[in-house]
Amino acid sequence: MISRVRVAIRFFFVGLAVGVLLAPRSGIETRRLLRQRADRFLNDLLDAVTLGAYEGTRGAASGDGAGRPADQPAPDERHEVSAGLAGD
User: Fold this and answer.
1) How far, rounded to the nearest angstrom, does the alpha carbon of residue 51 sit from its chain's CA centroid?
2) How many domains does the chain have?
3) ∠ CA(66), CA(67), CA(70), 5° rounding?
């Protein structure tokens, strides 16, 4: 099993090297394009992981099922609080 993974990784890097060497663009342009795509992929991945962790903990912390933190009032409660402050 491990030997198959090693072979797959080895062929991946060999294919990557051949692809970069035979690329139709110049080296500088190809590296820039690869860097931009890798940056975009990693940023998207980190956003998904961060939002997933955030969304997963929001509703559990409040216990109200609405996805609000426990210390944040519901929208109608905020209106009542602000109306009470405005009337003072």
Assistant:
1) 6
2) 1
3) 95
For 81, residues 6+ apart whose C-beta sits below 8 A from its C-beta are 73
Q: In a 3-state reduction of DSSP, which class is residue 70? A: coil
Tracing tokens 């692809």 back to the chain, one arrives at 19
d(CA 36, CA 25) in angstroms, rounded, equals: 15
- Considering just the CA atoms, what is the radius of gyration of the chain in Å? 25
Q: What is the mean pLDDT of each run of 10 residues along the chain (88 residues)?
A: 88 89 83 91 89 62 52 55 50
SS3 28: helix
pLDDT at 62: 47
SS3 5: helix
Residue range(s) defining the domain that contains residue 35: 2-87
